[in-house]
Amino acid sequence: MALPDAFIAKYQDLLGNESGPFFAALKGPVDKGFRINPLKAKQKPSSLSLDEPIPWSKQGYFGQVSGKSIEHTTGLVYSQEPSAQFVAEVVAAKPGEKVLDLAAAPGGKSTQLAGQMMGQGLLWTNEIFFGRAKVLSENIERFGVQNAIVSSADSKDLAKLLPDFFDRVLLDTPCSGEGMFRKDPDAISYWSEDYPRECAERSEEILANAVQLVKPGGILVYSTCTFAPEEDEQTIASLLERYPDFELLAIDKVAGSGITDGRPEWAGNQEELKKTARLWPQDLPGEGHFVAKLQKKADAEKSTKTVKEQKADHLSADEEKLLQDFLKETVPGLSVDLNRLVRFGDRVFLLPKDCPAFGKVKILRAGLCLGSFKKKRFEPDHALALAIQPDQAAQVFAVDEPSEWAAYIHGEALTTKADLQKGFVLMKAGGNGVGWAKFVNGQLKNFYPKGLRH
Ligand SMILES: C[S@@+](CC[C@H](N)C(=O)[O-])C[C@H]1O[C@@H](n2cnc3c(N)ncnc32)[C@H](O)[C@@H]1O
């Protein structure tokens, strides 16, 4: 699709001599990338090359992943374009922290943050549109994340519920998407001369809520995938003016990577704006991005509201016994604090530690889904197969042989002479869990979810 004339004129004017290489890069090929999941037991993919690391992403590599591969299906890799991988590196979440990803679907940055946190602390990941939040929740599951709350809420409701709560907040804002023109030409059809200004106004509204969610001394990262100064430097200049409790922090641009400073000259000449980062396709192998990192002053005034802890649900004595027996027989290596369980219908979730109360916010996933009560038994959830390390399961069966892999992922039962006891078996491929089967009379009955079979 051809670039709009008004877009061409705008960037000729802004970029001057640089506009030639910029427009040439927009006609060039799209750079592909993926990340390795540090939460998985075995981290060496067998069908992907790790020869070309992405300089600005600790777990990132150039290359293309098939959505049907063992690596993708087991959550060992997440397919994500190279520039997008810089954003979570700037957030730099630490194990044990409370981290919020406010506009998170489909989950590229959230899964990267989960990898940084290594299962410790709380990752609250939110998407306003429910349908997109479901995709986010599936990606969190596939990645094997145990400490994430997945919600679908407006940012203003989260700001009311969790004021001054988070150590780090990421707003990867809905933007005009100019940086994705090459990857997703449909984005060009949404564009008009006024679109960046309209998107900037929406981002300012979301930011007004985001600033309330950061605790004093905490970090706010704002990112876009657009070149538009209205949504980038100008939005940050206006944020600094509106919220004097926030100051810009310098971003490490990774010497030699091609990542460059923000452009103060496009937003009132505040030198400070050089601390922000731009990723241009003419400067590096990736799409267009902008990132700003801010800190709320440690002495900023705090909300008087206290955030309550989410109450756990009590199980009946019979249910507790069913669950304990299940854990002992199926996942003896998993330690479960029975005081941190919540129920959503028949499903039982293990909450992250110190999880705040959900209030009226719509929750799709509340930590690790262990499984569900069925009449007189407890059945493991698919999420559990992806989140545990294979050596935590009592019984494991590898489906690496291509015909067995194809049969399992297609939903078929497998026949085996393996020495297995009657009960649930963790199926693994490439060294990582992929789903459950139930062993009965020499047959592995398939528990791979119907909606995921291929
Ligand atoms: C750039 S995308 C997020 C991409 C995601 N961070 C990732 O890495 O996979 C922005 C998201 O913001 C959501 N969004 C749209 N309007 C919003 C609003 N008013 N408040 C919060 N999020 C919104 C979009 O649905 C979209 O999923």
TrEMBL record:
SUPFAM superfamilies: S-adenosyl-L-methionine-dependent methyltransferases (SSF53335). GO terms for molecular function: methyltransferase activity. InterPro entries: Methyltr_RsmF_N, MeTrfase_RsmB-F_NOP2_cat, MeTrfase_RsmB-F_NOP2_dom, Nol1_Nop2_Fmu_2, RCMT, RsmF_methylt_CI, SAM-dependent_MTases_sf. S-adenosyl-L-methionine binds at A103, A104, A105, P106, G107, G108, K109, E127, D154, D172. One of its GO terms (biological process) is methylation. Keywords: Cytoplasm, Methyltransferase, RNA-binding, S-adenosyl-L-methionine, Transferase. Residues 1-297 form the SAM-dependent MTase RsmB/NOP-type domain. Pfam families: Methyltr_RsmB-F (PF01189), Methyltr_RsmF_N (PF17125), Methyltranf_PUA (PF13636), RsmF_methylt_CI (PF17126). PROSITE patterns: SAM_MT_RSMB_NOP. PANTHER family: 28S RRNA (CYTOSINE(4447)-C(5))-METHYLTRANSFERASE-RELATED, NOP2 YEAST -RELATED NOL1/NOP2/FMU SUN DOMAIN-CONTAINING. Belongs to the class I-like SAM-binding methyltransferase superfamily. RsmB/NOP family. This is RNA methyltransferase. The lineage of its organism: Bacteria, Bacillati, Bacillota, Bacilli, Lactobacillales.
